[in-house]
Amino acid sequence: MTEKTAKRVYTYSLFLGFALLCWQILIYRKTIVDPKLLSAIVIIATIIGVVMISRNYSKIYPIYSGIKLMFFTVLQSLISFGFIVSGIFILMNFYLSSGQIEIQQHTIISRSSMSGGKRHRNERKPIFEIQFNSYYRKQLVFSHQFYERRNEFKIIELEVKEGFFGFDILENKTLK
């Protein structure tokens, strides 16, 4: 691979990694996946990426050496390898899921809130935390319409389906 081609591949993989990271964040809100698992996937893919590109990276970017070279190699691997692999994982789980929907009810453990979007800072959105399964807690964000009545709700009813890798996907959520 020529130097010019390698620089293009690294640049395109950076943009792809950032795009998949943004898409992954949106899908993560609708998926019940332990963040520790996603972190482990990112770390393992990053380590493999560092091993794969470290020699080539120093030849392509000779202006970097020492700590700077290692920093940019790890950063390139994190975004290119780590975010792409974890993005593919969560996208496959989401889009290749089964069609069977199951209704579950979960008791609300705690309540909090967050500010609204860019031009709606004063519209607080309620956040409810539930115990999903016996080992994982999930925070669910609802519309600002429910903020005033947030203390009235005791149960959240979820419509979930099983994802491709077995992690549940939220189809719908209802406060009761």
Give me the secondary-structure category: alpha+beta
How do the strands line up in the largest sheet?
3-2-1-4-5
Radius of gyration equals 21 Å
Low-confidence stretches: none
**Percentage of residues in strands:** 25-35%
Q: Give the integer mean of the pLDDT values.
A: 89
Please give the domain count. Answer: 2
Helix and strand run: HHHEEEEE
User: What is the 3D shape?
Assistant: elongated
SS element count, helices: 3
Helix content: 40-55%
Report the end-to-end length measured between terminal Cα atoms: 59 Å
**Sheet of most strands:** 5 strands, antiparallel
Number of strands: 5
Keywords: Membrane, Transmembrane, Transmembrane helix
Transmembrane segments: 9-26, 38-57, 69-96
Short summary:
This protein is 47% helix and 25% strand.
